[in-house]
């Protein structure tokens, strides 16, 4: 889903809690959208997009990959792939390990 940039961090955390309750062993979770890496924007357009989002709601914005990956790891997901996509977006794919259900 192309959504976490338009969600507050508490809402993103609740989303991952829900995923943790329903995703089965070897289940996949895919997330699409813009992400910062190492606390930095990957492009000027993402920085401008972040500014625009924060104008709509100060809790919105381009999330840090590391924060999202930590939430995923917290429910037993392991990053399988981080795909570069058009318009400075990413497609992140996680899998749930057998020992995490």
What does this structure look like?
This protein has three helices and three strands. The chain is an alpha+beta fold and 101 residues long. The radius of gyration is 14 Å and the shape is globular. It has a three-stranded antiparallel sheet, with helices on one face. It has helices at residues 9-22, 44-56, 65-74, and strands spanning 28-33, 77-85, 89-96. It has a single domain (4-100), classed as 3-Layer(aba) Sandwich (Rossmann fold), CATH 3.40.50. A hairpin with a 3-residue loop joins strand 2 and strand 3 (89-96).
Map the helices and strands.
Layout (H helix, E strand, L loop, with lengths): L8 H14 L5 E6 L10 H13 L8 H10 L2 E9 L3 E8 L5
Antiparallel strand pairs: 1-3, 2-3
For this entry, what is the oligomeric state of its chains? single chain
pLDDT averaged over residues: 95
Summarize the amount of helix as a percent range.
Answer: 25-40%
The backbone outline, from C-alpha atoms, is globular
Distance between the termini: 23 Å
Strand percentage, roughly?
15-25%
The H/E string reads: HEHHEE
CATH architecture group name: 3-Layer(aba) Sandwich
